[in-house]
Design goal:
The structure is a homodimer.
Chain A (H helix, E strand, L loop, with lengths): L1 E3 L18 H8 L3 E5 L2 E4 L1 H20 L3 E2 L5 E3 L1 H5 L2 H4 L5 E4 L5 E4 L4 H11 L8 E10 L14 E11 L2 H21 L5 E4 L10 E7 L5 E6 L4 E3 L20 E4 L6 H11 L12 E10 L5 E9 L6 H8 L3 E4 L2 H6 L11 E2 L2 E2 L10 E4 L8 E8 L2 E7 L8 E2 L18 E16 L1 H6 L2 E3 L5 E3 L1 E8 H11 L1 E2 L2 E2 L10 E5 L4 H16 L4 E4 L6 H11 L3 E5 L7 E6 L5 E5 H15 L1
Catalytic activity (chains A, B): tRNA(Pro) + L-proline + ATP = L-prolyl-tRNA(Pro) + AMP + diphosphate
Organism (chains A, B): Ruicaihuangia caeni
Pfam families (chains A, B): HGTP_anticodon (PF03129), tRNA-synt_2b (PF00587), tRNA_edit (PF04073)
C-alpha cells in the first residue's frame, strides 16, 4: 500500500499543545496521530490508528498463541452485575453512570469481570468445558479525577482484557502463567523494557497479582527493587519483621518532662539537650510514633485505630489503604480527638505509669497496631499520654502489647528486600500490564458454578489480565523519540518506509513514483511525500516528526541512480544505488523483526 | 489457522431465545455468534466476531478504493458541539446522556457529524486541503424505544460512518458519488440485494439523500417503486400535481344538509342516499377532507394549520413530519378546537356561503394548505363550516384558494411515480446504507470555513454516509439460512472450511488432522470438529447450524482415501478422494470470490 502525503489527512504542528506535559503527548498531537476531544478523550487520526492497529496485531497473535479466544463486549452495561460484586459502589466517582429512557441504571464499563463471568455461567456448566481463557480488545471508560499526559492516563482508553476460568487452583496457576508468559512475549516484541513487580490486588480482590511496569520518570507508580531481583509495587512491599531481643536486663521506663515536644523533631531536640547520653545521640528511629487513623467501614461505621511505628517514618496512605481495605482510611479528625480525650495529641503512647492505655490490655476500645519493626524486646521513647511528657525505655512485649500488625509505614531506599536479596532502591514506572489471580470472588458473587468429575457443583476460579493498548502506544512514543520527533521501532511504525521526493524537477518525482511502486510490490507499506510545492526542509522536518524509521530521500542525484537512505533511529545517512534500495530495506526489516 | 471445536468457546442451543422473533436473531444466538447483555445490547462471541471482521474488511477495502481515510472517534463526547447543531435537543429520548464527575454534560454519540466537522476545522484551513473524505468503523448508541430483532435494531451497534468535505457543490456531488459507488460495490461483494431509494433527509438536513434498502419482509421501512425504475422511501415520494381544469362552465356551489355526516364514510352514504346522481355514485375521492394539525416550532410556539386533501386519503404522519420539519407535528387537540370555534369539527371546509374561512383570503390566522391533487378547476364536496352542512361543487381556484401545498397524504399502491415511469407498488425493506448531501448546515453551525482561491473565507459543504455493520450481519443471516441453520456466503463465513471427523476410530482423527494441516498450509481458515465423544448426528447438526459453507466429512471411508464434500448452501454431497480435497476447495473458493 502507498499513502501519499498530498492526500493524507494530516497537519503537522509546530507548537506543543498547551495542555501537554510529557513528550509522548506533545509529539503524538504535533505529528498528527491523535487529537483531543475532551479531557482524557482523544480522536485517532490515520497515523495513530495505524500504530494502534499494529500493537493490537501483536497482542492478538500472542493471545492466540496462549490459547485465549477473542470476544467483544459492549461498553454500555447494566448495573445489576456490578451491584452484585459491589463494584457499582466501590468505583465511586471513577465510574461513568447513566440511565436509559426507562430510567434503568447503566455504566460505561471500566473493566469487564462481571459480564465475562456471566457469559461463562450462561453457556458452560461442566468441568469438561474448562479451562477457557477469553479476551477482548475494547474501549474502556474511567472518569479519572485528573486525566493527564495524553494517552498515559485517559478517561476513554483501549485495553486488552482477558479472563481465565478454571476448576482448580492449579488450573488457575497455569492459566495465569500462560498469560504472564504471553505478556513477556508481547512486551519483548514491542521492544518495551519492563519489570514484573508484586502488586497489591487492590479493588480487584484475589490472591496473586503482578504488574508489568515500564521504568520511566514519567511513570505514576513507584516501585522498589533489589539488586538480587526482588521487585514490588510500594503498596505490595512487605516489611520484614525485626528480630526479637531479650527483655531481661532492660532498664525500667522513665517518664520525663518534654515541654513543646509534640513533634518527633522537637522531641529529639529536647532529648539530646536535656536527656543527653554519652554513648550516642537520640535519633528519630529511637522514638515510637503513634498515629491515629479513622477507618470508614463498608457498613458506614467509623472506627479509630492507633498505629505505632518508628518515629523516622511517616504513614504511607496508599499502603494503609491496602492494609485496611475495603475500609476507607484517613487521618483522625479534630472531632475524633475531641471525642477521645485520652488520645493526647503529640504525647500519645501505649503506656502510662499506671498501666496500658492502648493495645490488648487496654479498655479504650481502640485497636492498637504495630509496625513490623516494633518487636518484643525493642526499647522506645514514646508519649506518656500526658501533655508535655514522654517515657524513655519503654520495652515492647514487657511494657506494652498490641492487637496486631499494620505494615503501613513509608518504604525507604535501603530497607531490606523481604526475600533477603539485599537493600531496595526506589524507581518510577508506568503500569503497562497487570495479571491477577482473582480466585473465586467474582464467581461466588455471580454464582458461576460447574459440575465437577463427581457431579458436584463447584465454584469456578478466575484470573484477570489487562494490557493498556493506548497507554502502550504512549509509552512507546515516550521511549522512542528525540528532540526532532518520533522514532518508531519497525514493528509498530505507521509505515515501513517513508519516501521523500525533493525539489521541483518532475524527473525526480517520476523516479520516486517508480521506486514507490517497487517497494509496494515487495510488500512494503509506503508513505510517499509527493508534495511538489513543499520545500525539502519542511519535508525533512515532517519526516523527523512523523518518525517512520526508514526514510529514502529521492533528490538531485536520483538522475544518476543514487538516493539517500536515512535511518531515523540511528541518524545514519547513506548514498545507495536506487537498484539496491528494495533489497537493502527488505533486509533491514527482516533483521528488525 | 485451525480452530478446534473441542477448544472453541461455543455452546450451540436447541431452543430459540424467548425474545427472538426473526430468523437472524434466533440463529445468531442459537449458533453462538452473539449473546444478549441488555435490551438491544449484545456481546460478540468468537464466531460472531469473525463474521463481523470479514464484513469490516470488505468495507475498509472499498473505502480505501474510494479514497476515504480511516480515523476513529470516541463514543463519549461533550455536549457543546451537539448543542450548536441543536441535535442535543432534537434527538430527544433517543440520546444516551450522562454527566462526568464535574457535572459536565456528555453523550454517547449516535452519529458523528459534529466531531468530524470540528476535526477538519481544527486542522484544515485552505481549499487546497480539500476535498477530503474521512470514515470510521465505530460503535454507536441510540436509546431506541423498542430495540428489536436482535442486531437489526440495537441500542449499541457498529457503523461505518463517512463524512466528505468539499468547497463546491460540484465537489460534494463527486464525493457523494464516490461513496455511493463504493456502497454498490460493498453490497455486491457481500451478495446483498439492494434498492437505492430517494430518501427524506430527516433530522440530518441537507439536499440529496438516498437509502440503500435490502428488500425483506422483516424490514422496517416501506418504500415504493415503479416497474420503470423509480424507487423512493414513502417519506420521499412526491405526489405529482394534477392537471388544472377549466373553471368556466362549472356549476355553482350548493349547500346541502348532511346531518350525522361528520366522517367521510357517513358523508358518502348521505350523498348517495339524498343527493343521488344518475351519472355516477359519490366516492370518497370526490370529497375534500380538511385536517387540522398542530405544529410545535423550535422556539416552542404552537401553530395550527389546516390541510385539505381528497377524502380517500389519510394523513401519513411520517410524511407530515418531513414536510413540517423541524417543527413537531401532531393532530390538533380538543383544546385547540375549543380555542377556535370557527373550526367546525366534521364539517370543516375552506368556504362558507358568506365567504372563505380558510386560505389566502381568510382572516382566521390559520394557514390553509392543499394536497397537490387539489388544483385549479377541480370540484369538491366539502364541509360548509356549519354543523350538519356540506357544500357541493366547490371549485378550487374559483371558490377557494390556499396558502401553499402540503404533500402529506398517504401514498397508495397504483399512485403514479413522479418521474412518469408508471404506477407504484409498495414493498418492505431494511435500511443497510444511507448517503446524504448534508450541504453547509453543519459547517455553518460549527464555523467550518476555509480560504478559497481568492483568499476569501467560504463555508465548506459536507456529505455524510453510513453503513450499519452489525445490521448487515443480521441481514446476511436473514438472507442466508434454512430451517437447519445458517448458510453463510464464502466471503463472510467465519471459516473457509469446516472439517468434521466422525466416529471413535483414532485412525479417522489422524487422517482428519493431516487434512486439516494441509488445508491450513494452503491458507484456508479451518474449523475442525475434533470432538471424539460427540455423535456424528450432533456434529452434523452443529455444522448445519453454524453454517460454514464448505464441509468436509472424514468418516469410515477415510481409510480408503475417500471423504465427503458437503456444500452447506446447495445441500450437495459428493464423495471425493482425500488427495483432491485441497484443490477442490481452493477452486471453489476462487470461483466464489
Amino acid at each position: 500500500m502507498v499513502t501519499r502525503l498530498s492526500h493524507l489527512f494530516l497537519r503537522t504542528l509546530r507548537e506543543d499543545p498547551v495542555d501537554a506535559e510529557v513528550a509522548s503527548h506533545k509529539l503524538l498531537v504535533r505529528a498528527g496521530y491523535i487529537r483531543r476531544q475532551a479531557p482524557g478523550i482523544f480522536a485517532w487520526l490515520p497515523l495513530g490508528l495505524r500504530v494502534k492497529a499494529r500493537i493490537e496485531t501483536i497482542i492478538r497473535e500472542e493471545m492466540a498463541a496462549a490459547g485465549a479466544q477473542e470476544v467483544h463486549f459492549p461498553a454500555l452495561l447494566p448495573r445489576e452485575p456490578y451491584e452484585a460484586t459491589n463494584r457499582w459502589t466501590e468505583y465511586g466517582p471513577n465510574l461513568f453512570r447513566l440511565q436509559d429512557r426507562r430510567e434503568t441504571d447503566y455504566l460505561l464499563a471500566p473493566t469487564h469481570e462481571e459480564p465475562f463471568t456471566l457469559l461463562v455461567k450462561d453457556l458452560y456448566s461442566s468441568y469438561k468445558d474448562l479451562p477457557v481463557t477469553l479476551y477482548q480488545i475494547q474501549d474502556k471508560y474511567r472518569d479519572e479525577a485528573r486525566p493527564r499526559a495524553g494517552l498515559l492516563r485517559g478517561r476513554e482508553f483501549t485495553m486488552k482484557d482477558a479472563y481465565s476460568f478454571d476448576v482448580t487452583d492449579e488450573g488457575l496457576a497455569e492459566s495465569y502463567q500462560a498469560q504472564r508468559d504471553a505478556y513477556e512475549r508481547i512486551f519483548t516484541r514491542l521492544g518495551l523494557e519492563y519489570v514484573i513487580v508484586q502488586a497489591d490486588a487492590g479493588a480487584m480482590g484475589g490472591s496473586r497479582s503482578e504488574e508489568f511496569l515500564h521504568p520511566t520518570e514519567v511513570g505514576e507508580d513507584t516501585f522498589v527493587r533489589s539488586a538480587g531481583g526482588y521487585a514490588a509495587n510500594v503498596e505490595a512491599y512487605q516489611t520484614p519483621a525485626s528480630e526479637a531481643l531479650p527483655i531481661d536486663g532492660q532498664p525500667e521506663p522513665i517518664v520525663v518532662d518534654t515541654p513543646d515536644s509534640s513533634t518527633i523533631l522537637g522531641l529529639i531536640d529536647e532529648l539530646n539537650t536535656n536527656q543527653a547520653r554519652t554513648d550516642r545521640a537520640w535519633l528519630a528511629s529511637d522514638t515510637l510514633k503513634n498515629v491515629v487513623l479513622a477507618l470508614t467501614h463498608q457498613d458506614g461505621s467509623r472506627e479509630l485505630v492507633v498505629v505505632g511505628m518508628p518515629g523516622d517514618r511517616e504513614v504511607d496512605m496508599k499502603r494503609a489503604e491496602v492494609v485496611f481495605a475495603p475500609a476507607d482510611v484517613e487521618p483522625a479528625s479534630e472531632s475524633d480527638f475531641a471525642k477521645h480525650p485520652r488520645l493526647v495529641r503529640g504525647y500519645l503512647g501505649p503506656w502510662t505509669p499506671t498501666g496500658a492505655v492502648l493495645g490488648e490490655t487496654s479498655s479504650s476500645g481502640i485497636r492498637y497496631l504495630l509496625d513490623p519493626r516494633v518487636v518484643e524486646g525493642t526499647a522506645w521513647v514514646t508519649g506518656a499520654n500526658e501533655h508535655g511528657k514522654h517515657v524513655l525505655s519503654l520495652i515492647a512485649g514487657r511494657d506494652f502489647t498490641a492487637d496486631g500488625v499494620a505494615d503501613i509505614a513509608e518504604v525507604h531506599e535501603g530497607d531490606p528486600a523481604p526475600d533477603g536479596s539485599g537493600p531496595i532502591e526506589a524507581a518510577r514506572g508506568m503500569e503497562i500490564g497487570h495479571v491477577f489471580q482473582l480466585g473465586r470472588k467474582y464467581a461466588e458473587a455471580l454464582g458461576l458454578q460447574v459440575l465437577d468429575e463427581n457431579g458436584k457443583l463447584v465454584t469456578v476460579t478466575m484470573g484477570s489480565y489487562g494490557i493498556g493498548v493506548t497507554r502502550i502506544m504512549a509509552v512507546l512514543a515516550e521511549t522512542n523519540h528525540d528532540d526532532k520527533g518520533l522514532t518508531w521501532p519497525e514493528q509498530v511504525a505507521p509505515f515501513d518506509v517513508h519516501v521523500v521526493a525533493t525539489g521541483k524537477d518532475a524527473a525526480v518525482y517520476t523516479i520516486a513514483e517508480e521506486l514507490v511502486s517497487q517497494l509496494e510490490g515487495f510488500g512494503h507499506d509506503v508513505l510517499y511525500d509527493d508534495r511538489p510545492k513543499v520545500s525539502p526542509g519542511v519535508k525533512f522536518g515532517d519526516a523527523e516528526l512523523l518518525g517512520v524509521p526508514r526514510i529514502v530521500i529521492v533528490g538531485r542525484t536520483a538522475a544518476d541512480g543514487i538516493v539517500e537512505l536515512w535511518n531515523r533511529r540511528t541518524g545514519e545517512r547513506e548514498q545507495v544505488a536506487i537498484a539496491d534500495v528494495v533489497s537493502r530495506l527488505s533486509a533491514a526489516e527482516a533483521s528488525a523483526n
